[in-house]
Design brief:
mainly alpha; globular; 20 helices
Length: 467
């Protein structure tokens, strides 16, 4: 395909392309059309993960349930670092699309997919090597530890599929398409649910069954997404000749994606410290916390969907030189995200105990989990400012600042509390209070830093100029 034909394919203005052109037209409807499938994708992904916890909780043992749920911070630590790199791919490709640079889009897409494979293979190898030592380091109770190690080793064996899916989804997001990744994930997720029940109920497996089901589901989702990329009619369509590293694209992706990856890592490290503290409170608290996490995280996915929306929208519009539109996008997206999060959090607080009852019949575990949900939901709107403004800054290419804010406001606060206040007030309630406190501190810092960055990078156009 020649450069001229590539550029023409980007500039084509049919009705479908108009809907996906994020640099023109109304903002709120496009934000919602983009963010809703993105939120549903994350929610479905977590729903299928929650199925793992629920199946072993209902049909295996509470030790198996604690192991599957308690592994979430460990999985996040390894996987999210490399998934953070996909943010770099998202921003770089979105900027090239906004600038109508077809050849650069193709180079970046090919680089992103090769990078996904490399990252996946690394995570698979590293995850299996560190599974045992990490479980021991976290102080997981002896009755839970064997289940935790087994689950981690099987799960990380499927890491290449996880990376392919996430980088592929980032490519589609950069072009304004969040529905295709949703459909692919839904297909794989339904397989996950069926395989969970088959492996546990029919074959009598426990954590090894749900872990194997997850790997199969991730494989199906990633293969379907790759197939869609190969048949896509837009400029992001891949072909075998594109699958090579372009040095310039890789450098830009790492420059933007590495701070986002480090942000995810320090976030996960702080959660590992919190998880270690949770483990010290016994298997009941572990089970309650893991079940509650699988419920409350749905609200976070709403917030995160709008954050990722801002990465793409700001990235495309900044690449197109639409600075005033960038400002308007951030302002309106923040308002919509805050309102939706507030309503959803209130509903989750009301339904906290019935939702916990889906995971277990143990009244003590239900009460502990409901308490965690209520504490976090009261303050989730603080997370809107932290995550959304971080996404806006990454879209502007300023990825290091949100990483530093997370290091100080989130990681620093949580680790400090675990080793100070929690040692004095050794209760589940005091430990959970670290979440709203760290969100509040981070929200204040990131708001100040965003305003300074906005004023520098998004100049207000003179009166009478193009808005």
């Amino acid at each position: 395909m020649s450069n001229n034909s590539i550029d023409k394919s980007i500039k084509r203005r049919d009705s479908s392309a108009d809907r996906k052109d994020l640099t023109k037209g109304s903002i709120i409807d496009k934000v919602l059309l983009f963010a809703v499938p993105l939120a549903l994708t994350s929610m479905l992904q977590q729903l299928f993960n929650a199925t793992d916890v629920a199946v072993v909780g209902r049909f295996a043992s509470k030790e198996a349930m604690a192991a599957v749920g308690g592994n979430a911070p460990v999985v996040s630590l390894l996987v999210n670092f490399f998934v953070g790199l996909s943010v770099g791919a998202n921003v770089v490709i979105a900027r090239h699309i906004g600038a109508k640079s077809g050849e650069n889009v193709r180079k970046a897409v090919g680089t992103a997919l090769v990078l996904a494979v490399i990252c996946g293979l690394f995570v698979a190898a590293a995850g299996n090597l560190i599974a045992g030592p990490v479980v021991r380091m976290l102080g997981v109770p002896d009755e839970v530890a064997p289940y935790s190690v087994l689950y981690l080793r099987i799960y990380f064996g499927g890491a290449p599929f996880i990376m392919l899916y996430n980088f592929g989804a980032a490519i589609f997001r950069s072009a304004g398409n969040t529905r295709t990744p949703l459909i692919c994930l839904l297909t794989g997720g339904l397989l996950n649910v069926c395989a969970n029940l088959f492996f546990v109920l029919v074959l009598g497996m426990d954590v090894d069954g749900v872990a194997t089901a997850t790997v199969l589901a991730n494989a199906v989702s990633s293969i379907l997404l790759l197939k869609q990329l190969m048949s896509d009619e837009s400029v992001i369509r891949i072909s075998p000749d594109m699958l090579r590293i372009d040095k310039s694209s890789l450098t830009q992706m790492i420059k933007i994606g590495l701070p986002a990856a480090l942000q995810s890592t320090v976030f996960s490290i702080s959660n590992l410290c919190v998880q270690t503290a949770i483990n010290s409170l016994g298997s009941d608290v572990m089970a309650a916390s893991s079940a509650a996490y699988n419920i409350e995280v749905f609200i976070f996915f709403i917030v995160n969907a709008f954050s990722q929306t801002l990465v793409t929208f700001v990235g495309q519009n900044y690449g197109a030189g639409e600075y005033m539109r960038c400002r308007e996008i951030v302002r309106k997206t923040l308002a919509v995200s805050w309102c939706i999060t507030m309503v959803a959090s209130a509903l989750m607080m009301i339904a906290s105990k019935p939702l916990m009852g889906l995971f277990t019949d143990d009244p003590a575990i239900v009460e502990l989990g409901a308490m965690r949900i209520r504490i976090l939901m009261y303050s989730e709107t603080l997370n809107v400012f932290m995550d959304n403004l971080s996404g806006a800054m990454r879209g502007l290419g300023k990825s290091l600042i949100p990483a530093l804010v997370t290091l100080i406001g989130v990681c620093g606060t949580r680790i400090t509390w675990v080793f100070t206040g929690f040692q004095i007030y050794h209760t589940f309630f005091s430990l959970m209070m670290v979440f709203p406190v760290s969100w509040g501190i981070s929200a204040i810092i990131i708001t100040i830093m965003y305003i300074r960055t906005r004023n520098k990078m998004l100049p207000v156009e003179p009166a009478g100029s193009k808005a």
